[in-house]
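All the exercises in this workshop are built on plain-text protein records. The record below serves as our worked example for the rest of this section.
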Amino acid sequence: MSSDEEHETVGHLKVPAKLVAATAVGFKDRTKRRLSLPISGAGRDHSRRSSNASNSEAGGGRKGSFDSTESWSSFDSDEDAPHPRQITQVNSKGFSSFCVKNISSHNFGRREIKLAEFEMPGLMSLRERALADQPLKGAKIVGCSHVNAQNAVMIETLVALGAHVKWSACNIFSTQNEVAAALAESGISIYAWRGQTEEDFWWCIQQCLTGEDNWHPNLIFDDGGDMTHVLVTRFPAIAKQVKGIVEQSVTGVHRLYQLSQKHNLPAPAMNTHDAVTKTMMDNYYSQKESVVDSLKRCTDIMLAGKTVLVCGYGQVGKGCAMALKSMGCVVFVSEIDPICSLQACMDGLKVRRVEYVIKKVDIVVTATGNKGVITREHMDKMKDGCIVCNMGHSNTEIDINSLKKPNITWEKIRSNVDNIIFPNKKRITLLAEGRLLNLSVVSIPSLVVSVSAATQILALIELANAPAARYNKDVYLLPKKIDEYVSSLHLPQFDAGLSELDQEQAKYLGIPQHGPFKPQYYRY
């Protein structure tokens, strides 16, 4: 050690002065990531303006209000960068009909997409098989889904099969900015960036339904029903030209059935959420892996020994509960359905009403797809340090608006993690502001999206090519044969060999020799 290197005493240790200085600088630099946010106009930190304050003349956001549902988080380290709606970007070919964070990051996004393709064998196989036929030629598809590498493979498959598409994000937190840039670079009209405000969100959807190119979509791909809602309520003339709708979420399916009951559904709709393969892979196996990963990434928590309440015991709730139980958690389940409740009991879980256990749990996971599952009254009763998150589709399960009050302080810990400090100084840790946790924090497994996307593309192909008289303006389930076909596309990756029925066996069972092998009502 050189003689000019001075030391400072820290406890009983002598630490080089340069190291102490460097550490101090490091703490100073992290102030952008750690700040307290009193929910009052005067006390709001201006460093969060990129996500929750007005972006002036360009309409980049709206002013915060206590009853709004806008984002209180900031995701990008470059807070001084211009808002995407304030600038016009052009790709390498002169194309500008898009709005993304930074078009120059497209090379990184392309690598992400290529990586996802390796783990999406079924979807790539479907693309290869249907490429020559161009079954979506003439289709104008407007989509609203998570914009990540896996869904980018699906979007580019639609284009490869002949479709013209415009796309927006269904979640303000889940977009991979570099992937959106890669789609824009390839000439796709994409309107999405991570950390949008609510006003940005609706603006992006509107851009997909309008345009100077006299754009009139004839097919809808939706995840949550927001695109369909805007189309029906604000663009009824365009809605009359739509041939079909494909919806993949439980929330969106509920909204479709409501439209159907009121005779307001503009076109036939395919419910792919309840497709067997989609429910099994996306709702159960995917959530089973991602809930643990998401909780640990956000909080660095040790799960063993923790007491957890899982609200809802459908496929998502089952996956979450089983994963948390396997990690050594004591798991309670709340449920309205007696059949699901019985399943939970038989799986060794304790079924309780929320209000009976809310005081003693360490973690609350909502997975119902409903609204008002966790109320302000529930949160007032939670123990100090309780972690609250949502694994259901919608952001309505936890009453977030009740926390945007002058006497409640939001303390940002890191991206997607906020401490909510109550007047009595108790705090709960809220993840992803009550939005879908796993897609706000991590990316969904590519194989899962391959299964879901193949199902959805086949539904779009069916609606695009079906004779006008085949479907009424109602909600339909996919035929079992399509589910079996999607599954068969993915079996080669597992080196799986299917057995086959001979004619006598098929006759004995009373089913076709090559399927479908189960009736439509069969539950796997």
User: Anything to note?
Assistant: The longest helix spans residues 276-299.
